[in-house]
């Protein structure tokens, strides 16, 4: 009898315990259902989604496996300054070399022009100072004579003088030899002529028919019918015979 009572009490306790556990489980399930079915505020949802996305992005940045392959290297300030200084020095040295080469080439050209034309006029190279004048002469030297011509394909005397004055002296002269004679200051004596003065000739005419530009030591440059652009001497029998005087251009 006592045994049966004990068995009954045990069964009753077990039943009560199971019921309590079942009820507790039901309560938990109810809570889960309630949490799951609770309506969410759209603003809170969006905010939470953005916040979570941002956190994930930061986390992915920290993860070396997910990080971008772009790498930024920051050099020490002293090293950057050294490299900038070195690049500037290299540029400066290159500029110096280019300037030196240009100066050397220009000096060589000047010496060459001086040597060439000083020997033609029987003077010393250091007596030639207006190198631009002789560079122009050298570019035109040998151009054939052509009446009415104004270019290197053929040029007459007054057009050659006109081109020379415009290029070398920056002055515009009139077109014909007679007009150039009339517009310049007359010089009678050869000894009074200076480099750049005009020299005029009357060749088988009472009017001025030919013009050239005086250089040095009685030499002048002109465009002649026989030789084209060339250098001649006023003491030559032919040119001294027809020499009409010189002219200094009025600026």
What would your notes on this structure say?
It is a single chain. This protein is α+β, with helices and mostly antiparallel strands and about 250 residues long. Helix content is about 55%, strand content about 15%. The protein has helices spanning about 1-35, 40-60, 75-120, 130-140, 155-170, 175-180, 235-240, and strands spanning about 150, 155, 185, 200, 210-215, 220-225, 230-235, 245-250. The strands form 2 sheets. The chain has a 6-stranded antiparallel sheet. A hairpin with a 3-residue loop joins strand 6 and strand 7 (about 230-235). The radius of gyration is 53 Å and the shape is globular.
CATH top level assignment of the domain at 136-249: Alpha Beta
CATH-level-2 architecture of the domain at 136-249: Alpha-Beta Complex
Q: Measured on Cα atoms, how large is the radius of gyration?
A: 53 Å
| Shape designation | globular
Largest sheet entry: 6 strands, antiparallel
Strand content: 5-15%
Question: How many strands in all?
Answer: 8
Biggest sheet strand order reads 3-8-4-5-6-7
Distance between the termini: 155 Å
Low-confidence parts, pLDDT < 50 over ≥5 residues?
19-38, 53-62, 64-68
Give the topology, please:
Layout: H1 2-37, H2 42-62, H3 77-120, H4 131-140, E1 150-151, E2 154-155, H5 157-169, H6 177-182, E3 184-187, E4 198-201, E5 210-214, E6 219-224, E7 228-233, H7 237-242, E8 243-249
Antiparallel strand pairs: 1-2, 3-8, 4-5, 4-8, 5-6, 6-7
């Amino acid at each position: 009898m006592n045994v049966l009572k004990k068995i009954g009490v045990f069964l009753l306790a077990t039943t009560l315990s199971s019921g309590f556990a079942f009820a507790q489980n039901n309560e938990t399930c109810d809570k889960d259902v309630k949490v799951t079915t609770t309506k969410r505020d759209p603003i809170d949802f969006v905010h939470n989604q953005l916040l979570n996305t941002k956190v994930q992005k930061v986390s992915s940045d920290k993860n070396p496996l997910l990080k971008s392959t772009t790498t930024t290297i920051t050099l020490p300030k002293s090293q950057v300054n050294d490299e900038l200084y070195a690049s500037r020095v290299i540029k400066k040295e290159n500029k110096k070399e280019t300037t030196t080469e240009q100066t050397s080439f220009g000096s060589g050209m000047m010496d060459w022009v001086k040597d060439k034309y000083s020997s033609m006029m029987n003077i010393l190279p250091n007596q030639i100072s207006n190198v631009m004048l002789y560079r122009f002469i050298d570019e035109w030297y040998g151009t054939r004579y052509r009446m009415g011509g104004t270019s290197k394909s053929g040029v007459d005397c007054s057009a050659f003088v006109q081109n020379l004055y415009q290029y070398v002296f920056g002055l515009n002269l009139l077109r014909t030899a007679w007009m150039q004679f009339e517009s310049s200051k007359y010089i009678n004596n050869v000894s009074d002529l200076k480099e750049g003065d005009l020299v005029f000739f009357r060749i088988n005419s009472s009017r001025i028919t030919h013009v050239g530009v005086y250089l040095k030591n009685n030499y002048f440059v002109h465009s002649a019918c026989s030789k084209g652009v060339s250098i001649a001497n006023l003491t030559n029998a032919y040119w001294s015979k027809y020499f009409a005087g010189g002219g200094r251009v009025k600026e």
